[in-house]
Design goal:
Structural class: mainly beta
Number of helices: 0
Strand content: over 45%
CATH class of the largest domain: Mainly Beta
Oligomer: single chain
Largest sheet: 8 strands, antiparallel
């Protein structure tokens, strides 16, 4: 792994000759330069030069035993540079930089107190934290929306360890770790009618803009395919004759567009207009699209490599479609009035979000349980009877209401993270149904889609 390159948007906080007040560099085998990103004060860059080529790494932390480390470079060099992640504003940080020439192990130390983070960032509160029962994932990254639009990463204590400003004109609901292990990809779409201008953006974790492009009409969510193609949910607006009203109306359905990059033409894979006929329902005139009727309201999109299919959630018609990437045809349709329906003892999905078809062939969603009451739910899929039965749920006793969003993430130890969308609450639940961790967004804010991880360097 090559040495990490410090960000260019930095101001020096520590130099060997002339440290800031209260900070210190201990004389060592080489001179250290320690800098903090002026746009993201939780990122610290460390660089130095050695006379002999060496492999190198940095150990760091906020306690005497440090506890955190960068990867070790795999190629010897005389120039060494690392970014330190996972730190919090106002933290007292100690670090030791190492260079191994093969003949000698060289080192130098430094201490630094980080500045405060911007005051306009929300202040989420962890209200429950059972350290013995939570999953090992240390960090949560995603978007936060409402009074403040921002990208964030927080630790289990709810402290910001990474942040970036999001454009106030756009909703950023979907942020993903890049499949190739380099940075993050996130969307942005019009927050007034969601049909106009949109963006897809890729950044490195140190904040560098890698690329950005327009995604006109794309909204809510996208999916990464292993060959580098991106799949988007895109509004598909057409004029439709409403026989009951005896008039033509402009109606918004959804399509899936595949896009291979700036040099490729977008490829239309699927449209709801080629799958079903529109009909008037309870959410038909909800003012999400200005001056248009909202027929399907696509709100999540997932890709599954083993089956080469995409799962598309259509919230307004309480339906999840499984669509072949190769042909664009619907292979399975889940919903009360679809081929795969619910057994008599199972209440159908209602305005579901984050629809996932798991490796165990179950359907995982958030759904409404009367009114705006949001819960997480998992349904078994019986291929013989083509019925769905609820086998897990969480949130019935929480009484949380959400107008939009919602997410369920299965974790490695059997726990489940439930993001209650615009209710502004996330909970981690044990297999026994016990809430072992809870965080609440600041007043007037809520969480978009999030991802959990333990190692910033895994997608450096």
């Amino acid at each position: 792994m090559p040495a990490y390159q410090p960000s260019s948007r930095l101001f020096p906080l520590l130099l060997l000759m002339g440290a800031c007040t209260g900070d210190a560099v201990v004389p060592g085998d080489f001179d250290l330069e320690v800098t903090v990103d002026e746009n993201m004060v939780t990122l610290v860059d460390v660089s130095w030069t050695t006379q002999e080529p060496a492999i190198s790494w940095v150990e760091y932390g906020t306690t005497p035993d440090l506890g955190m480390t960068t990867p070790t470079t795999l190629v010897e060099s005389t120039e060494h540079g690392f970014t330190l992640y996972g730190l919090t504003a106002l933290a007292d940080v100690s670090l030791v930089a190492y260079a191994d020439t093969g003949d000698d192990l060289l080192q130098a130390s430094a201490e630094i107190t980080l500045p405060n983070r911007p005051s306009n960032l929300p202040d989420p509160q962890v209200t429950l934290f059972d350290q013995s029962a939570v999953d090992t994932e240390q960090f949560i990254m995603g978007s936060i929306l409402g009074e403040t639009n921002a990208l964030f990463a927080i630790n289990r204590e709810g402290e910001w360890v990474w942040y970036a400003e999001a454009d106030s004109e756009f909703w950023t609901m979907d942020l993903q770790l890049s499949l190739d292990g380099h940075g993050i990809i996130y969307n942005g779409f019009s927050s007034d009618d969601s049909i106009g201008y949109g963006l897809i953006t890729r950044r490195s974790i140190n904040g560098e803009l890698l690329w950005q492009d327009q995604t006109n009409g794309a909204h809510h969510a996208f999916a990464q395919l292993p060959d580098g193609v991106l799949a988007f949910i895109v509004s598909d607006t057409r004029e439709w004759y409403n026989e009951d009203a005896d008039e033509k109306q402009w109606v918004v359905g959804d399509c899936i567009i595949l896009w291979g990059g700036a040099d490729e033409e977008p490829f239309p894979l699927f449209s709801t207009w080629n799958w079903a006929e529109p009909y008037v329902h309870d959410d038909w005139d909800v003012e999400f699209y200005e001056d248009y009727h909202d027929w399907t309201h696509g709100n999540s999109l997932k890709y599954y490599d083993q089956r080469d299919v995409l799962a598309l959630s259509l919230a307004n018609i309480d339906t999840v479609l499984e669509i072949s990437r190769a042909t664009g045809e619907v292979t399975r349709a889940f919903g009360e009035d679809q081929e795969y329906t619910f057994d008599r003892g199972t209440e159908p999905m209602d305005f579901q979000h984050d629809a996932q078809i798991t490796i165990d062939n179950t359907l995982l969603v958030t759904t409404r349980l009367g009114g705006l009451h949001i819960i997480g739910a998992e349904y078994s899929i019986d291929e013989e009877t083509k019925t769905l039965s609820k086998i897990w749920s969480h949130g019935e006793d929480e009484g949380l209401e959400a107008i939009t969003q919602g997410q369920v993430i299965k974790l490695g130890d059997g726990n489940v993270l439930v993001n209650f969308g615009s209710a502004g609450v996330m909970q981690e639940v044990s297999p026994e149904g016990e809430v072992v961790w809870e965080i609440q967004a600041d007043v007037g804010n809520w969480f978009g889609n999030v991802v959990m991880f333990s190692d910033f360097y895994a997608f450096q």
